Amino acid sequence: MAGGSSSSAAASMDNIPKDLRHLRACMLCSLVKSVDQFEDTGCENCDRYLRMRGNREQVHHCTSTQFDGLIALLHPEDSWVAKWQRMAQRLPGIYAVSVTGRLPSGIIRELKSRGVIYKSRDMTT
């Protein structure tokens, strides 16, 4: 890797789950990480809205253990899969294709008041 891209590649590797147990998917952006990773670093795409970092209860409210499919997103801006899944603006990481569940109504209201449109990624309904 040339230039500064090696440090950004290392930073994006922090988003990758270290273990396949206890995985959860963010209900706003579908990023998949372990409970501990969400609690330690929050959601790199959504933490300014969901504030999961350091708050295990919030992690449980804003993520789901029930999700289908995984997408390894390395270069979101160049990926047709990212465009198809409406993920082109996301950071590199592992994402669920579908996440079962909905954010709590209070969080949805707060998102709306901040100009963030919540579109459920639950494809089961």
UniProtKB/TrEMBL annotation:
<keyword id="KW-0804">Transcription</keyword>
<keyword id="KW-0805">Transcription regulation</keyword>
<dbReference type="GO" id="GO:0032044">
    <property type="term" value="C:DSIF complex"/>
</dbReference>
<keyword id="KW-0862">Zinc</keyword>
<dbReference type="GO" id="GO:0008270">
    <property type="term" value="F:zinc ion binding"/>
</dbReference>
<comment type="function">
    <text>Component of the DRB sensitivity-inducing factor complex (DSIF complex), which regulates transcription elongation by RNA polymerase II.</text>
</comment>
<comment type="similarity">
    <text>Belongs to the SPT4 family.</text>
</comment>
<feature type="domain" description="Spt4/RpoE2 zinc finger">
    <location>
        <begin position="23"/>
        <end position="100"/>
    </location>
</feature>
<keyword id="KW-0010">Activator</keyword>
<keyword id="KW-0539">Nucleus</keyword>
<keyword id="KW-0479">Metal-binding</keyword>
<dbReference type="InterPro" id="IPR038510">
    <property type="entry name" value="Spt4_sf"/>
</dbReference>
<dbReference type="InterPro" id="IPR022800">
    <property type="entry name" value="Spt4/RpoE2_Znf"/>
</dbReference>
<dbReference type="GO" id="GO:0006355">
    <property type="term" value="P:regulation of DNA-templated transcription"/>
</dbReference>
<keyword id="KW-0678">Repressor</keyword>
<dbReference type="GO" id="GO:0000993">
    <property type="term" value="F:RNA polymerase II complex binding"/>
</dbReference>
<dbReference type="GO" id="GO:0140673">
    <property type="term" value="P:transcription elongation-coupled chromatin remodeling"/>
</dbReference>
<dbReference type="InterPro" id="IPR009287">
    <property type="entry name" value="Spt4"/>
</dbReference>
<keyword id="KW-0863">Zinc-finger</keyword>
<protein>
    <recommendedName>
        <fullName>Transcription elongation factor SPT4</fullName>
    </recommendedName>
</protein>
<dbReference type="Pfam" id="PF06093">
    <property type="entry name" value="Spt4"/>
</dbReference>
<dbReference type="InterPro" id="IPR029040">
    <property type="entry name" value="RPABC4/Spt4"/>
</dbReference>
